[in-house]
Design brief:
Blueprint (H helix, E strand, L loop, with lengths): L2 H31 L7 H16 L3 H12 L5 H9 L4
Helix pairs in contact: 1-2, 2-3
């Protein structure tokens, strides 16, 4: 095995590790959303964080499900649009 092959395998392993960590982070952020109101700073940040981490963890379906769940909690269209914008970045 060449040095390049070895380094490529290490990079791939780290990417998988980071994606798994992002999925775990999304679950933790979702737990925070259950303890906070969407109108609170902590609640809004947790909702955005849960979606963002799901996207970064390559769990697009989970991110969509979280968006559907959380967007229904908002009466403020501006905050709902902030969640929607996560899919555009």
């Amino acid at each position: 095995m060449s040095k390049l092959d070895e380094l490529t395998m290490q990079v791939t392993a780290k990417i998988v590790q980071i994606e798994n960590a992002q999925r775990e982070l999304s679950l933790i952020e979702e737990e925070i959303t259950k303890l906070t109101l969407p109108s609170s700073v902590e609640g809004h940040v947790a909702r955005k964080g849960a979606i963002r981490a799901a996207i970064e963890g390559r769990s697009e379906q989970r991110a969509k499900e979280l968006f559907d769940l959380f967007s229904g909690e908002y009466t403020d269209e501006r905050l709902r649009n902030e969640l929607r914008a996560l899919f555009l970045s």
